[in-house]
Amino acid sequence: MSHTTTHKPKLLARVRRIRGQVEALERAVESDIGCADVLQLVASVRGAVNGLTAELIEHHLTEHVLDVDDPAQRRQGAEDLVEVIRTYLR
User: Fold this and answer.
1) CATH classification at residue 31
2) How far is CA 15 from CA 9, 51, 57, 69, 79, in A?
3) How many domains in the chain?
């Protein structure tokens, strides 16, 4: 079973909170609030997405690299993670 399935309720709760933050950001831009307030909302969204990303990376590392006995599967799990991190850091 995939770790995204195992942790689905917790992950969905985080995604829904992020959606709420993005919707608040949209409303803020539509209502012409000050740029400092918009920037604060953007920082909040970014922090929430970064937190979700860190949690997913941790779960992937644990379940697809550290807790895997087969060296080929472990290597594949590590390569998958490196690919995602490279994309994330662009």
Assistant:
1) 1.20.58.1000
2) 10, 11, 15, 32, 25
3) 1
Q: How many helices (H) and strands (E) does the chain have?
A: 4, 0
Per-residue pLDDT, 3: 66
CB atoms within 10 A of CB 27: 11
Query: What per-residue confidence (pLDDT) applies to 5?
Result: 80
Residue in 70, 66, 5, 59 with CA at minimum distance from that of residue 84: 59
Do residues 63 and 3 make contact, with C-beta atoms less than 8 angstroms apart? yes
| Domain with 50 in it | 3-89
- Provide the residue-wise pLDDT of the chain in tens; the chain has 90 residues: 566 788 899 999 999 999 999 999 999 999 989 999 999 999 999 999 999 999 999 999 999 999 999 999 999 999 999 999 999 888
Distance set, CA 59 to CA 21, 48, 53 (Å): 24, 17, 10
